[in-house]
Amino acid sequence: MSERVWTTKDVAEFLQASEKWVRHAVAGGRLPYTRLGGLLRFDPEKIRAIATRDATPARVLRPRSDSGIPGE
């Protein structure tokens, strides 16, 4: 990883989503992350790959309907 790791805020800004959505996506296993102590950190390359994946990215990133959080 040549670039610094991203915070929840960085991921939210990149995906144009809320930080709350990012945390729910992490809890639901929809975003790859690393936990450093109590902090969530993300590999920018992995987040970009998910966002630009040829397979339907909306399906990959959309929160589950049972999460109670509408898609943004």
Task: Describe the protein's architecture and organization.
With about 70 residues, the chain is mainly alpha-helical. The protein is about 45% helix and about 10% strand. It has four helices and two strands, in the order ααββαα. The chain has helices at about 10-15, 20-25, 45-50, 55-60, and strands at about 35, 40. A two-stranded antiparallel sheet has the order 1-2. Helix 1 packs across helix 2. The N and C termini lie far apart (about 30 Å). The model has no long low-confidence stretch (mean pLDDT about 80).
How large is the count of helical segments?
4
Question: How many strand units?
Answer: 2
Low-confidence stretches: none
Strand content: 5-15%
Pairing-aware structural class of the strands and helices? mainly alpha
Can you summarize the main beta sheet? 2 strands, antiparallel
For the residues shown, what is the average pLDDT?
81
